[in-house]
Amino acid sequence: MTDTTAPAAKSGVRISGAFHRLLAFSGLIALVVVFSIASPNFMQTQNVLAILQATSVNGVLAIAATLVIITGGIDLSVGTLMTFCAVITGVVLTNLGMPLPLGILASILAGTFCGLISGTIIAKLKVPPFIATLGMMLILKGLSLVISGTKPIYFNDTPGFNQIALGSAVGSIFPSLPVPNGVLILFLVAAIAAFVLSRTALGRYTFALGSNEEAVRLSGVNVDRWKIAVYATAGGICGVAGLLIASRLNSAQPALGQGYELDAIAAVVIGGTSLSGGRGTVVGTLIGALIISVLANGLRILSVAQEWQTVVTGSIIILAVYADILRRRTL
Amino acid sequence: MTDTTAPAAKSGVRISGAFHRLLAFSGLIALVVVFSIASPNFMQTQNVLAILQATSVNGVLAIAATLVIITGGIDLSVGTLMTFCAVITGVVLTNLGMPLPLGILASILAGTFCGLISGTIIAKLKVPPFIATLGMMLILKGLSLVISGTKPIYFNDTPGFNQIALGSAVGSIFPSLPVPNGVLILFLVAAIAAFVLSRTALGRYTFALGSNEEAVRLSGVNVDRWKIAVYATAGGICGVAGLLIASRLNSAQPALGQGYELDAIAAVVIGGTSLSGGRGTVVGTLIGALIISVLANGLRILSVAQEWQTVVTGSIIILAVYADILRRRTL
Amino acid sequence: QENYNIALISKGFQHQFWQAVKAGADKAAADLGVTVTFEGPESETQVDRQMDMLAAALSRNPDAIGFAALDSQAATPLLQQAKDAGIPIIAFDSGVDSDIPLTTATTDNVAAAALAADKMAELIGGEGKVAVVAHDQTSRTGIDRVDGFVNRMKEAYPKIEVVSVQYGGGDQLQSTEITKSILLANPDLKGIFGANEGSAIGVANGKTELGSKIVVIGFDSGAAQKGMITSGVMNGAITQNPVGIGYETVAAAVKALKGETLPPIIDTGFYYYDAATMADPAIAAVLYD
Amino acid sequence: MVDIDKAFPGVRALSRARFELRAGEVHALMGENGAGKSTLMKILSGVYTRDAGQVRLNGQPVEITSPRQAQDMGIGIIHQELALMRDLTAAQNIFIGREPRRAFLLDEGALNRDTQAIFDSMNLKLEPTVKVETLTIAKQQMVEIAKALSYQSRVLIMDEPTAALNDAEIAELFTIINRLKAEGVGIVYISHKMDEIKRISDRVTIMRDGEYVGTVPAADTPIETIISMMVGRTLTNDALVIPDTSAAPVALEVRNLNRGREIRDVSFSVRKGEILGLAGLMGAGRTEVARAIFGADPRESGEIWVNGNRVGISSPQDAVRAGIGYLSEDRKQFGLATGLDVRNNIALASLERFIGPGGVINDSAMHETAEKFIRQLSIKTPSDTQEARLLSGGNQQKVVIAKWLLRDCDILIFDEPTRGIDVGAKAEIYKLLNALAEQGRAIIVISSELPEILRLSHRIAVMCEGRLTGVLPGGSSQEEIMRLATLRPSAVAETNSERKSA
Ligand SMILES: Nc1ncnc2c1ncn2[C@@H]1O[C@H](COP(=O)(O)OP(=O)(O)OP(=O)(O)O)[C@@H](O)[C@H]1O
Ligand SMILES: Nc1ncnc2c1ncn2[C@@H]1O[C@H](COP(=O)(O)OP(=O)(O)OP(=O)(O)O)[C@@H](O)[C@H]1O
Ligand SMILES: [Mg+2]
Ligand SMILES: [Mg+2]
């Protein structure tokens, strides 16, 4: 290449990068516009907050899944791991009567530990991620029931607990903007995950592993260690999701969680992360998760019959991704 | 390769090929042996038939998923497509009162048609298989409810219908061996699928696509057409599963099906087919599906508490695959 | 006394309702000196998985089977097989379209939901908009409770309009989101009926999260629901007697095994309870945690 | 092909490029890495569509929009980057899309027979039923060639077909090319091996920076002229200087390395400042030895000593920690993280250098370092944030080299370091290797090109069938190396053709 083309190319890449993100975003905007026109109730502050709140759990799980998927893996256990962490918190806070901070720590540690185990099974025993996390999903589902005695554990003795998701630190400062803490936590997790992905060694290796694991290994990198670290981090994030859902329901529901992995992975893929690894963004995942909850909320607000909601959701997911592909192609 | 190494390598490959299949099989055998020792009821003819019967639907779905997964794709819609086909059969036979063969044809055609649509969305619109089939899964789930009016459709007016899965053509010849037709159909579908994979152009391109799609395209092959053909074939096989389940329940249950894709994919992966495409066998998938149902049945026969069943199932799935990896490595 | 082995195949497992049925069955097992196993599929849509469970149970050669059918017809061949093997069958929770079960221990869900409609109408003053958040669009209990509630409203309370019926799979979180959507879409809504435990808790959660004042009628009990009724978030709820269902099913099975005759239906009843009546011994006996 | 333009996002690959091919000629297409050779040929073979210009076949303008169409017009291509389906057999690869059938069914017997016939005509010893993923790149390349031949095209494009081949196989290929030429097939031949151009081609077209430079007859144009047309300047050729390293300490010593039949009792040592050439025929086990030393593959027995200390190496990580770097022979599979950008590929082996407090990566330092190497190795890329897979083959190789240069290892093993690299860059790399040796590093160079081995090595170790058959002083003759490379203790009967071409 000659010198003249180089700078043009550079800015070209930058613009298209930013524009690309804007595109998934514009799919979301299109949905919001359509629903706003269709129903005056849609754009009410309260409904917007409801949508954000509804995104929080799936969004956090999807961020966990994003990390794993960028390495070229998959994590089917995010949903039941979330539940397991919630149950552990329940045991620590309610059954053992420990103070709140310990409960929070327990959830995140439990998540990290389980992620560590999945990661170890995958990295050391070379069990394919699909199988390892499928197994984990079932194991954790069973263990949640066993530990909780197949009964919900309530947090009635820990008064501050439901403030984790439902309180509003923002609202106490700006009363007109009662953004629930759950939403704040989602954005916080997203910001941290985006930072980790783009600016730290862990993030760099996450992408490198998904790009060409063998090349990374032959560069003298301890591939196993980093892979385990990614799964453990994802597990820790599921621990946060566990806190969010437990706080929202003011209880640890041991039977819940299975099926949540599909929504999480869907958000990731709608957000432009490739299942074959090596590429993906947290922002995309957030947008993907928002698309899912805006769709669900909007269709309910419009009182579309439930069976048709499903049909429309399926169609719009395909259309949204197709629109993204089309516009990227004509760029 | 020199002359001396060539024959050795060749026979090596052959032996390890056969042995490898034997390995997944030996995992299954190990399970069977353990359960037989643990409970005298396990190896009764009736129970063996129950296990096979329980494998039939998941097995057929898993065979459909195998085809798609070998191309490097994924099909999340197998479960709800099965249901959709069952509902279509219900409409044709019960609501429209058409004769049985038409109902059978309708199910398979409906499946093929839906597979064709998924395949087209994937091949022509370049929507990732995960998204396209996720969308399809939701669309079909909704449509099944819409078409059936959210009520099961019974086949009471079509007396022969439940013979498709429950009758026993074998049993009418050898009364001591009342193998249900559903099981026969599973093996028939498996045999046909194995034949298609190994002996026809469709099979060749299925493997080629999963191996290196770009290379296939560069070789001047109409990649889109073959990809669509694979999804359509898989859809047709889901149609067979739809017949099986409808016949077994003597009704089309419109709400059933979601979640079944995970069991199907699990059977495929346990059977040694790689999610990244290019390799896989129908025999492996059958063994994978059998492992899943033997586990479920065996644990029930032993009256293991349900929450522990889940834990044990998860662990054994990981262990079975790990054992397979270990033995292949030490070969 | 013989140590009978009785296999119960229910419609679910993890849900508190089914756990209460299990508790009742376990209590009967202890009282009567028999062994009971209890299992059920993941969700109430998985008719074929329930068949597999029933088949596996048959392979164990139990002395009797208790069966809560997800579909009234699908199990007929297997039940016939059990009958041929001389295994008595007791239906519970929902009936089966066949004369094979010796008796059915159940609640009239349609009537129970109609009672919920009556209570709702009373609490909102006989007019206005209401909605239903149910657990399942296709399962027997889902259909019966929605129909029971909606039809009663139509017949008896012409000024009440059921504006929305949505399904959250009995998942508390999903039911919460649904409730919020319904409330935001219908600011003038007067009340919501939550048609099972998860749905009812979801409705109450949604009400709390939005700070709404609507009337909430729930279904089933459980610690959370009882707490919500005590605190006033939920106005009241219908409860069946799941412990009773479990107990009666096992008791009937033992009677059958001993050759005693059984009535065709064992109605285990349903009750409306609210903060005021919760402590009544009759009510407290059928509530569970 | 006239006035062909092609731009990729951020890159102008071709600008008014031109090319002409006559029937029955071998026309070499030359140019530096990234000059646009592959792109031009991909346009001709229907992989890319051109932005402007015209393609004429037999004087008629044609539109070639798909590989299929190109095939139908009789244009066949061997791609530079292997395009094989790894899970299929050689025969299945060759006849993909044109499988012989009997009724609806595939006729595997005919497939394998036809393939065997092609292999026989190429004098290639290969089972049609072997899966290509088990083959070395060289064999895979031969399968690609067989595939291209099977189309019986009138125009055959060969994009660096010999990059992975040894001399015997190259000779075989040239026999095939001459046969095709006699049959009137026009052949486009792309290669960075200058000696081949003289041996095989009739005319040479030279490209630079996506533009047409000129076309000259091969026979009476001196190589130096062609090179200067390619790089726009004349290159000086440094002669081999062998430093006296006999007093330098031993940096790496390998003792009795063993693994199965691939590595049999290999022992050797390299001193600081020394370049050891590792020569041998394809499949001699050189790559296996290198990978075993580097810990990429397990070894059964054998010791590795670095700077006089025995080191336990069981993974590449151990090796890198001990100061060993390994540039693999298959960059796509083992060298490059193709989805990552150039910058991160360069930093991949030394990421810890750019990690600041809290695990945060210092991207600006990484950028500067990457820019330095891009300049030093003249890597053609729009920026250091370009995805590595979008670079031309040769430039990808340079990125991998930069990765190991940055890592700053004391012992460097280069497995086919100049595969697919143009003359200009090759000279740069030779200079670089010499400079590294001068700095006191121990270097092992594995190369299938004897001239390269002879030009670089201070000492030459030769392998055959997993054994080290001898160590020669630098500047030995090709004949001497070949004698050791074919010294087979197992006395396996060898085909005559292989002997002769060797
Ligand atoms: N798909 C693509 N996207 C972006 N840039 C590309 C793409 N393909 C090629 N290029 C760029 O186009 C230019 C020409 O590449 P090409 O592969 O034709 O070079 P080449 O002459 O074959 O080089 P080499 O000898 O290294 O193979 C290079 O700068 C390369 O980076
Ligand atoms: N993937 C493989 N599967 C089976 N045998 C292999 C494979 N790769 C190499 N071999 C065999 O291992 C031995 C050593 O091969 P290796 O690639 O190390 O040789 P090399 O000297 O590096 O050759 P090259 O010039 O191809 O790099 C040979 O007998 C070869 O046939
Ligand atoms: Mg090239
Ligand atoms: Mg080699």
UniProtKB/TrEMBL annotation, chains A, B:
GO terms for molecular function: transmembrane transporter activity. GO terms for cellular component: plasma membrane. It is a multi-pass membrane protein. It comes from Devosia psychrophila. It holds the Pfam family BPD_transp_2. The chain crosses the membrane at residues 18-38, 50-70, 76-96, 103-123, 129-148, 183-207, 228-249, 282-302. PANTHER family: ABC TRANSPORTER PERMEASE PROTEIN YPHD-RELATED-RELATED, RIBOSE IMPORT PERMEASE PROTEIN RBSC. It comes from the Bacteria. InterPro entries: ABC_transp_permease. This is Monosaccharide ABC transporter membrane protein, CUT2 family. The keyword Transmembrane applies. Its main location: membrane. It is found in: Cell membrane.
TrEMBL record, chain D:
This is D-ribose transporter ATP-binding protein. Signal peptide: none annotated. CDD domains: ABC_Carb_Monos_I, ABC_Carb_Monos_II. It comes from the Bacteria. GO terms for molecular function: ATP binding. Residues 2-234, 240-490 form the ABC transporter domain. SUPFAM superfamilies: P-loop containing nucleoside triphosphate hydrolases (SSF52540). Keywords: ATP-binding, Cell membrane, Membrane, Nucleotide-binding, Repeat, Sugar transport, Translocase, Transport. The keyword Repeat applies. It comes from Devosia psychrophila. Belongs to the ABC transporter superfamily. InterPro entries: AAA+_ATPase, ABC_carbohydrate_import_ATPase, ABC_transporter-like_ATP-bd, ABC_transporter-like_CS, P-loop_NTPase.
